[in-house]
Amino acid sequence: RSRHDIVVPPVLYAHVPAGLINHAKRRRLPEQTLAFFQGKLNLHIPYEYSFGIRQGLYKAFRSKPSILVREGHEANKERYFEHMSGSKFCIAAAGFGFSTRAYEAATAGCVPLIMQDGIEQAFEDILPWGLFALRMNNSLSAISTLDTTLAAVPQSRVDRMRSTLYCVWPRFLWLRHDPGAMYPLPGAQGLLKFDAFESLLWTLRKRLRNDMTWPSDWKEGCRAVRKYFEKSPHATVKEWAPWGNFELDKKVLEDYLK
Description:
Layout: H1 16-21, E1 33-39, H2 53-61, E2 67-71, H3 77-84, E3 87-93, H4 101-108, E4 111-115, H5 129-132, E5 134-135, H6 139-142, H7 146-151, H8 155-168, H9 196-209, H10 218-230, H11 250-257
Parallel strand pairs: 1-2, 1-3, 3-4, 4-5
């Protein structure tokens, strides 16, 4: 219900965020994939599941290399991470409801491509989704020309979107846990002020006071990410190259970090 409910991101499995972020030792794909999706397809239920979007993607691109569509991603997480860190866009197609892929993509530094017609994403009240994600309307009808549509997006725009994503991704992660529990990210204490719990509170404040657009600690959060990315966050992480396979728009990032 508009202005009543708040959409929040799902909890990602503990090992997933670190695996997505850290591109150290991860090979660069010989050629960057235009877009990537891997997950359940349920080809035997063509419309009841995913509004037919995942099935349509598979049928349209199963033999085309530009957009990689695969079924299942539990068997080999590193291959899944590799394709997310080697793609221009990562497709977040609807499942039975909204998908985890947008939040995994954000953590990996891959620009989310939202194909979930009429489904609100997490914290839309306070986060500039239009600046860090691409959203398809009428997703089923968009599939036939999706490769052409995405190829027309300039790399400079993708770099700008990723530079905004740089400041956003912690706000989708639930970094606070019961005492004694492991953090989803090693050394994430410096990001706790900018996690999903804090985003929930910012959303409540905006609805109560209507005195802000983005969280007022936006720049502080960007600087916290820069500090987190600068050096290995824990002694157990020997090699550290967050988002190492991607380029950023330095001017956009500098404006955020001022």
